[in-house]
Design goal:
The chain has 243 residues and is α+β, with helices and mostly antiparallel strands.
Amino acid sequence: MRGARRPAAVLAAGAALLALAWGLGPRSAPPLYDGGPIIAEHYRYLHVPPGYSATKAPGKVDVTLQLEAGQSPPIAETTEEQPSQAQLLAAQQSFAIPAGTTAVHVVITAVDPPAVGPSEGALDGNVYRFAVTAVPGGAALTLRPGQQVTVVLRGPAGVTGAVLEVWDGTRWNRTESAPLGASSPDSYAANVTVLGDMALVAPPQSSPSSGGGGGGSTGIIVAAVIVAVAIVAGAVVLVLRRS
């Protein structure tokens, strides 16, 4: 199973790295992906709200990746929906690797929300748990100093101004998020320094605009570029897995 999945994982990672190169390159260069809007499938809820029709269960990621030159490998993992509802993107050497580790185990899965809700809005879709652990042993890996990874979440259609927030065990914490636009409708990207339970939070109805933007953040812009191409790679990954 692992052997069949390896080419797909390499393809997705390569696409992400190519997108990163474009994002950091001169603005005169054209984007790698210039297609029309993606037609999104209906949102897959872990717990279907009243009045909504049941859909497939949310997709999940559960994969083991071998180390590369003793370092954590590049990660470009996405759930199976179109567009994906949850994605994790990380460059090589992002995680600190304990002695004796031979691989990393990546899990992305929808989980029950905590009893405490966000203070500045309502949860918009599922809560997702992101985890990267050491193999063997299962110890949670931490990011190396100065490193960030990119998390992308897609929410139900029709909500504007959502923010990606991280649950720290006590409360929800906002991130600097950026919408991905037509390349991935209702999706938002954020660069984070810790993994755990994350969700999109919709602003209160009384605040249709969530205030100004964050469009000047180079990291978020690059993240959006990475995801735009990773989405295309994800579609090819699905084809490879089915063939």
